[in-house]
Design brief:
4 helices; 8% helix; 12 strands
Length: 207
């Protein structure tokens, strides 16, 4: 299961789609392991493909792009080679960078279980058939995406993973969640109240 979501922040273009993240340098020739955020790597990761980089502003790569020269697979793990990344030391400066590609947001996605931010924002969040809130924002982080859900008691951040968000129904305008206990409500205190145990008549001892 992959979640393919365009960025929503004003610091990035609204016609870009996130397709991967660089995770670890591989070997000595500039190769980098890739975590795929797309169901169509054969279309997104082709020689000549150009990726916009999401990196910290302090990075030397900020505001730059990467051009893919080759994608190989080692033990079912995708490994990418890029132009102007000649060795391991340069590759290590790109670790954790997120890769984006140009995409016409007016076109429906042709990938399974892939949505745009504007499709998700405003959806009713359902839990056990009951509406618990509304999606207000999708936040894209290096480790995972978070859905901001506005509820009657405040905002809840929901990890956008299959185990917690099993169903998105754009046509019905709903997003179903199966959150762990405590995500949408406070759990009761398991510690007994001292006042509950401090009272009571002493036992009567008989011979």
């Amino acid at each position: 299961m992959t979640w393919l979501i365009p960025i929503s922040r004003e610091t990035q273009p609204h016609d870009q789609l996130r397709v991967g993240r660089l995770t670890k340098a591989h070997g000595l020739k500039g190769a980098i392991k890739v975590e795929m955020y797309t169901d169509a790597p054969e279309r997104r990761f082709v020689p000549g493909a150009v990726f916009t980089l999401q990196v910290p502003t302090s990075s030397d790569w900020h505001g730059k792009t990467l051009e893919l020269t080759e994608l190989k697979w080692y033990n079912a793990q995708p490994v990418a080679f890029f132009k102007d990344v000649p060795d391991r030391s340069v590759a290590e400066t790109l670790v954790k960078a997120i890769l984006w590609v140009d995409q016409d947001l007016s076109e429906p996605s042709d990938e399974e279980d892939a949505w745009y931010d504007h499709q998700l924002v405003g959806l009713a969040v359902m839990r056990d058939g009951v509406r618990v809130g509304t999606v207000s924002l999708v936040d894209h982080l290096p480790a995972q995406d978070l859905i901001h859900v506005t509820t009657e008691t405040g905002e809840v951040l929901v990890p956008f993973v299959k185990a917690i968000v099993p169903t998105v129904d754009i046509a019905a305008g709903t997003l179903t969640v199966t959150p762990p206990a405590g995500l949408f409500e406070e759990l009761p205190d398991d510690e007994p109240d001292e006042s509950d145990t401090a009272t009571g008549a002493p036992e009567t001892v008989t011979d």
